[in-house]
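User: I'm new to structure prediction. If I give you an amino acid sequence, what do you actually give back? Let's try with this one:
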Amino acid sequence: RALRAAAVHMAMNQANGNGGTCTGDSGGPHFLHINGQETDLVAAITMTGDVWCKALDWTYRVDAPLARAFLADHLP
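Assistant: Good question. You get back a string of structure tokens that encode the predicted 3D arrangement of the chain. For your 76 residues, that looks like this:
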């Protein structure tokens, strides 16, 4: 796992039954979980996954300053 200024890299693990991020999932949301419950708040946007849907995941953080500036131009 790695937290960077604009991205998050996470190892995915299917052992918990939730699957992972696949090739082709780019642009999809990662929702914020609070106290183990998924919310409707988007925390990050998928950049890439892998063909096995379990080995890796790169996402753009929506709380990064550049992302916030971009979103401010496109969202109310």
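You can read the tokens as a compact description of the fold. Here is one thing that stands out. The mean pLDDT is 78.
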